[in-house]
Design a protein that fits this description.
- This protein is α+β, with helices and mostly antiparallel strands.
- The protein is 30% helix and 21% strand.
């Protein structure tokens, strides 16, 4: 399970120990973590294990090539003179990657020149162009996170005409200004007959439903301990830590790691649930990020509950052939009382049959009905929370949100949409693209009766 945007990212540099940059995509600035060169071998081991597992379920993966989108970020330097890179940048610039042996599972159409280009748009364009040029050999497409792949698909929708023009004419988009890319692509297009942390688990059943995904912990990646999840506890109590062999099926734990690179009992922030055992190895399902919580008063709404509420409310949009493309949330305390603000980017197939204001107001109420009893008590009895608000934003708003994160040092490889935001620049960006605002028209159901 390579959740490299939420785990510390110690990846080795080419010739020396260095610092690795945490991507900071879960709501914070990038952090520095120690790195040693030897860590690469463990990571490469896990990477090479993934495709053979996939081949058990999807035959023929060793044939053809893969259109794998890979991106590097600019390097920085610590005050002491050490190089600081993101985890995947360190991997791509390492000797392990540059001198990797032949592996039929990992033949990629993406050239190193594009991977090493730190201009994200030029890198995407070049990798997409190479993949399309060798389209008859491509039999698989991939990226670290699905959210990034969705953006790449959107990029193709917006730029397919220029891409096909380049292939048809053998010319190159003048917006590609990177010298190494232009030199490489000029040769390719002229040839008409050319063909943050630690990783910690693998999905041994890759064809299962997304809701059923479980990961088997790889004990050689780090030393893993598990803190029984107590929602109201923010303090790590070592006496409560559970070893890998002692976890129990059905229980939830916060992951705690001690790495070869020097992190000691680092609280990752991922909440995992033990689902089953593979032989003697426990398998875990990712439940949510710890502390990704909306709250106004005594209420606490975590990522899982918010996701369920959005899914329930979005059912009302189906008859209009409309869906929620992306969403995030914000606890607005500038009003009295404060209230939840949910930002929705919608995709509709028929603009003439878009959902009305009344329908969107009902979506607000449906979300409130889906939230926990503490929230509903605060709304109904305490009146300490105001009506939930949905703000509809313009198309491509969440792409701009990604662009902002990338400009702040996040790698596109590791970006995920934050489900709860508080940063003023991010809130300002979202508010600048609001098309309409809608509030819950009535109070959600709540009763103070106790049932035995």
């Amino acid at each position: 399970m390579a959740r490299s945007s939420t785990l510390p990212s110690p990846m080795a540099c080419d010739q020396e120990d260095a610092k690795a940059l945490h991507s900071g995509t879960s709501g914070g600035e990038p952090k520095l973590f120690p790195s040693i060169k030897e860590e690469q071998q463990r990571r490469m081991f896990l990477c090479t294990l993934v495709m053979p597992v996939m081949n058990l379920y999807v035959k023929g993966l060793a044939k053809g090539k893969g259109l794998y989108f890979m991106f590097s970020k600019s390097e920085t330097e610590t005050p002491g003179g050490l190089v600081a890179r993101s985890a995947l940048t360190s991997l791509y610039k390492s000797d392990h990657f540059k001198n990797r042996p032949y592996n039929p599972y990992y033949i990629s159409t993406s050239p190193n020149e594009a991977i090493y280009c730190t201009d994200t748009l030029q890198s995407i364009y070049t990798q997409m162009l190479c993949g399309l040029y060798e389209r008859e050999q491509v039999n698989r497409v991939g990226m670290v996170f699905a959210s990034g792949l969705l953006r790449v698909i959107r990029f193709l929708q917006l730029n397919w005409q220029q891409l096909t023009h380049d292939i048809r004419t053998g010319s190159l988009n003048p917006k590609l200004t990177d010298t190494s890319i232009r030199q490489y692509m000029t040769q390719i297009l002229a040839q008409r007959d050319a063909s943050s942390e630690c990783f910690f688990g693998i999905n041994l059943n890759p064809m299962c439903k997304p809701s059923e995904v479980s990961y088997t912990i790889m004990p050689n990646m780090a030393y893993f301990e598990f803190l029984p999840h107590e929602p109201n506890s923010m303090r790590l109590t070592h006496s409560k830590l559970v070893d890998l062999v002692d976890v129990k099926v059905g229980e939830e734990y916060e992951l705690v790691i001690t790495t070869y690179t020097g992190l000691y009992r680092y609280q990752v922030g991922d909440i995992l649930r033990v689902t089953r055992f593979h032989n003697s190895a426990p398998q875990f399902q990712f439940i949510r990020r710890k502390n990704m919580v909306l709250g106004i008063d005594t209420d606490k709404t975590d990522e899982t509950e918010l996701q369920a509420a959005v899914e329930n409310a979005s059912q009302l949009l189906r008859e209009f052939n409309t869906s929620v493309v992306e969403y995030t949330s914000y606890a607005d305390t500038t009003t009295i009382p404060g209230h939840y603000v949910i930002y929705w980017e919608l995709l509709g197939k028929n603009s003439a049959n878009s959902p009305s204001d009344k329908v969107l107001e009902q979506c607000c109420l449906t979300m409130e009905e889906s939230l926990n009893s503490v929230y509903r008590r605060c709304r109904v009895a305490d009146k300490s929370i105001g009506p939930l608000e949905i703000r509809i934003v313009k198309n491509e708003t969440f792409e701009q949100l990604m662009d902002y994160a990338i400009s702040r040092g996040t790698s596109m490889n590791q970006y995920k949409v934050p489900r709860c935001v508080s940063s003023k620049p991010i809130v300002d960006l979202l508010d600048s693209r609001v098309l309409s605002k809608h509030f819950s028209p009535s109070l959600p159901h709540w009763t103070s009766e106790l049932r035995l």
